[in-house]
TrEMBL record:
Localization annotation: Periplasm
CC annotations in GO: periplasmic space
Stated name of the protein: Periplasmic nitrate reductase, electron transfer subunit
Binding, heme c 1: H67, C81, C84, H85
Source species: Thalassobius vesicularis
InterPro entries: Multihaem_cyt_sf (IPR036280), NapB (IPR005591)
Subunit annotation: Component of the periplasmic nitrate reductase NapAB complex composed of NapA and NapB.
Entry keyword annotation includes Heme: yes
Length: 143
């Protein structure tokens, strides 16, 4: 009894192996990673606009970030964006000042420093990458 089941298990795995070999021979199995499993993955080139500000696609849109932000840390204590965009620095740094909405707390009180609700800039503002659209988009703003 035992013997037959071992033999049939062997036959099945032999068949599976043969199948896999055939599939490979067909040569049409494309890798999704674009590289061999043993190679380090190469991230694609990402296009960043570093020249001018983007037009807004609708009136209330948080403007897109026209520069790279990889090096600017934002955490509980530090926000490096403020080094250029806070009203106290923006003039010197030649950067657009945070609009006054960023200095209103949720009760509408005017603050001197950026509101906690606006601390994590990239919750709303995102840099752009020249990546193909994942889904078709026919968005048009209302008037
Ligand atoms: C070294 C200075 C500097 C730092 C740090 C910096 N920015 Fe900027 N940012 C600029 C300048 C200068 C511009 C304007 C670029 C232009 O007009 O061509 C700009 C533009 C922008 C704009 C576009 C505003 C508009 O009206 O189109 C956004 C949004 C923005 N930055 C967000 C951020 C965020 C978020 C961070 C942190 C992750 C950050 N910036 C860090 C200098 C800086
Ligand atoms: C909750 C969403 C939100 C967060 C968080 C936020 N912003 Fe904004 N931001 C907006 C919106 C919406 C606008 C455009 C309307 C306005 O000015 O209020 C804007 C406008 C701006 C502008 C353009 C101002 C102008 O007058 O052209 C800059 C620069 C900017 N934000 C930078 C930042 C930075 C830096 C941070 C982080 C300290 C930040 N924002 C956090 C939503 C946000």
């Amino acid at each position: 009894m035992k013997k037959t089941s071992i033999i049939s298990a062997l036959t099945v795995s032999a068949l599976l192996l043969a199948g896999a070999a055939l599939a490979q021979q067909a040569g049409k199995v494309a890798t999704l990673r674009g590289s061999d499993a043993a190679d380090a993955d190469q991230a694609g080139e990402v296009y960043h606009q570093d020249e001018k500000r983007f037009p807004r696609n609708y009136r209330q849109q948080p403007p897109l970030i026209p520069h790279t932000i990889d090096k600017y840390q934002i955490d509980l204590k530090a926000n490096e964006c403020l080094g250029c965009h806070d009203w106290t620095n923006a003039g010197d740094r030649g950067a657009p000042t945070l609009s006054m909405t960023h200095y209103l707390d949720r009760e509408g009180n005017q603050l001197d420093t950026v509101a906690g609700t606006r601390w994590f800039c990239n919750q709303c503002h995102v840099p752009q990458a020249d990546a193909p659209a994942l889904v078709d988009n026919t968005f048009a703003p209302s008037n």
